[in-house]
Amino acid sequence: MSANLRVLFSAEQIAARVAELGREIRAAHPDQTLTVICVLKGSSLFMADLVRAIPGDVRLEFLGVASYHGGTSSSGAVQITQDLRASIEGQACLIVEDIVDTGLTMDYLLRTLAVRGPRSLRVVSLLDKPGNREIEVAVDYVGFTIPDEFVVGYGLDLGELYRNLPYVAVYVP
Ligand code: PRP
User: Fold this and answer.
1) Residue nearest to atom 10 of ligand 1 (CA)
2) Is 42 in the pocket of ligand 1 (CB under 6 A)?
3) Which of 9, 111, 113, 117 is deepest in the core (most CB within 10 A)?
4) What's the gap in Å between 137 CA and the centre of ligand 1?
C-alpha cells in the first residue's frame, strides 16, 4: 500500500455495512422491483456489491454525470453525459452514490429524475461528508459519515487512480 494512504474503512467493514444496507433497503421496498441507478463512475463498485445484498427483484440502470463545480464554473453546474436506458415512470428507484460531498450533484440528480415520475426516489450513499455541504439534500441511507478529508478507494479516485482499492482510505498528500 502507498505510504500516502491511511485506511478509513477496511474491505470487511464495508462488506458488513453493505449487507446491512441491502436488508434495510429491501425492507423499505417490500415486494417491489427496485430500479437501482448507478451514478458513474464512482459508485460502480458499491453498486455491484449492494445489489447482491438486496434480496428480490432489481433492475440496473447507469447514469453518467459530469460535475464542474470543483473548477471555476458556477455552482450546480452538473450535466448528464449518459442518460438512463429506460423510463423510470412509476418505478421504485434508488440512486446509488459513492459520496455526497457538497450535495450539488445529488441535488441536481433528484430534481432531474423526480420530474420523470418515479413511484419513489430514494438515495443511498456509501459515504456522507456533511461538513462540506453547500446545499441541503436528503440522503435516505448512508454507509459511513466521514470528516472533511479527501478519500479514495472502493470506486473513489484521485486523477482516475485508486478506484480499484478494496478499502476506503484517506489520501494524505
Ligand atoms: C463524485 C461522486 C459524486 C460527486 C459528489 O463524482 O461520485 O457524484 O462527486 O460530490 P458533490 O456532492 O460535491 O456534488 P465525480 O465528479 O468525482 O465523478 P466520478 O464518480 O466519475 O469519480
Assistant:
1) 101
2) yes
3) 9
4) 14
* Predicted TM-score of the model (pTM): 0.95
Q: Using a 6 Å cutoff on CB, does residue 132 contact ligand 1?
A: no
Which of 57, 83, 98, 101 is an active site residue? Answer: 101
pLDDT for the residue numbered 169: 98
Mean pLDDT of residues grouped by 10 in the chain (173 residues)?
85 98 97 97 98 98 85 65 97 98 96 98 98 96 97 96 97 90
Distance between Cα 41 and ligand 1 center (Å): 8
Residue environment code for 106-131, b if the CB has 16+ CB neighbours within 10 A, otherwise e: bbbbbeebeeeebeebbbbbbbbbee
pLDDT at res. 74:
45
Out of 2.60.120.200, 3.20.20.70, 3.40.50.300, 3.40.50.2020, which CATH number does the structure's domain 12-151 have?
3.40.50.2020
CA pair distance 96, 112, nearest whole angstrom = 15
Distance CA 113, CA 72 (A): 26
